[in-house]
Structures are given as structure tokens and as C-alpha cells.
Specification:
Helix content is 38%, strand content 23%. The protein has 10 helices and 10 strands. It binds adenosine-5'-triphosphate and magnesium ion.
Amino acid sequence: MSILFENVYKRFGDKIVLDDVSFKVKPGEILFILGKSGMGKSVTLKHIIGVLAPDAGKITVDSMVVSSMQGVMRDQLDQVRQKCGMVFQHPALIDSLTIFENIAFGLRTQQYQEKMKSEVTEEMISDIVHDKLALVHLNPEILQLFPFEVSYGVQKRVSMARTLAPEPAYLLFDEPTTGLDPLSISSINELIFELSRKLKVTSIIVSHDMACALSIADQILFLDQGKILLMATPGEVMKSTIPLVQDFFKETKELLPPNWSLS
Ligand SMILES: Nc1ncnc2c1ncn2[C@@H]1O[C@H](COP(=O)(O)OP(=O)(O)OP(=O)(O)O)[C@@H](O)[C@H]1O
Ligand SMILES: [Mg+2]
């Protein structure tokens, strides 16, 4: 159960976005991807779920080679997407469906029925929806509301519950805390940590939040100018002398309490 990038190249026109990128995420690990805007973080996630294909190189999810599936192996690509739950930067809930139906969405698909190898009853769907809602610390009272009737922070949690419902083996988060107030940011960060550890799900988190990365990541990967500048544990990152890494860390230090240390 791992995600593997081997010598991946991707360019858009003249712009080289991924330039010989190789890394591995081991089972159960939490990997943070940090980097300045436009450095290819979202592009990296999109390669994992096969929304984008590399110009060269290989991407493997478990034993499935995602990089060779585009256009030719629709069924296998669906299988990869079933394994990888992606939480997008914006909640992207369906406005015309209640919160219950939004969370249940992935459970009503043919792929999910096939995965379960049996009929998925309404009772099972209701149990799963309530279970995931509790995981993201929301109250069942909101289930009959529509997305526009709840706050942005609640919508983010609902979108996480929707992603968790079909029980993906991997969780991919693209800037999960963007656009939230500081209190909601820290509660979403805690939630990601709790979910990754409790569900033992392998997670990749794209973020600008170095403080969060230092507190919950197993590995931190810095992308810059198409290259991996550094991939290391939080402890190693703190000792790094690479200027860009130090810049990220400098900003973070000001936000951390004076007696803060790695747990
Ligand atoms: N489908 C596309 N077509 C053309 N260019 C693209 C496409 N997707 C991404 N790019 C370009 O690739 C580069 C990397 O984009 P990406 O979205 O991965 O950045 P990012 O690191 O996620 O930045 P941010 O922190 O702002 O979200 C950018 O220059 C972007 O304009
Ligand atoms: Mg992005």
C-alpha cells in the first residue's frame, strides 16, 4: 500500500512543472507537500488520481501503474480513484442535495456496489453517513440541511465526511485549511491528524502550513522549480540549512509558542 513517483516529468507549454520528481509514501504515513504558489503541488496530487498524465516517468498506487492508464483503462482508473479519497481546496458540495445526500453520494455509485460485492441498502448508507459525520465531529441535526445553510467551515467538514464515506485507502488533501479562520484551521488540522492516525490511512497533504506539517507529518517534501528541494522528517527539516526551507520555518517560528518542541 504505497504511492510511488519515479522520475516524473510534466510540462505545460514552455513551463516545466515537475522535473524528474521521485518519492515514495509508505503505508500509514502522513506526507506534507510544501512549496510556494505555482510550484506543482496540486499538479502532483492530480497525477496520483490520474486527472493528469506525466510526459515521462511512472506513478504507481499499490501495484497499479496510474501513469499508463489515461484514456485506455477507464475501469482501472476508477479503481485507483476509489482507493484515493481527495479533499479539494474548496468543498464543492452539490447545492441541490441535502448534506445527507452529499455524504452518501459515493455510496450510491456502481463502483462502490462492486467494491462491496453486495447490495448496499439504505440502512447501510444511513449508518455510514452517521458514522462519518461523527468522525468529523458534526451533529446529525445538520443532515437534512442544504450546503448553503451551513458555514464554510462546516461545509469543509462535510466534504471530508463525503470523501471518507467509501473508506479510501489513501487520503489526499489539497490545502484543506485555506480560507478558514485560525480557530477552524487548528480544528481541521487536528481532525486530519486524528483521521490519519485513527483510520491508519496513508495521507498526502498539500499545504502552506509549516507549523502543522512540523507537528503531524512523518515526512515533509519541499517542491521548488520543478524539483524536490528536500524530503525529510520534521526533525531534519528544522536542522536544514536550505534557504527556502529556513524561510518557511522562520515564518512558522513566530507563530509557535515559545516553549514549543517536536512531540
Ligand atoms: N491544466 C493546466 N494547464 C496549463 N497549466 C497548468 C495546468 N495545471 C497547472 N498548470 C500550471 O502548472 C503550475 C503548477 O500549478 P499547481 O496548481 O500545481 O501549483 P500549486 O503549487 O498547487 O500552487 P498553489 O499553492 O497556488 O495552489 C502553474 O504554473 C500552473 O499555472
Ligand atoms: Mg494548488
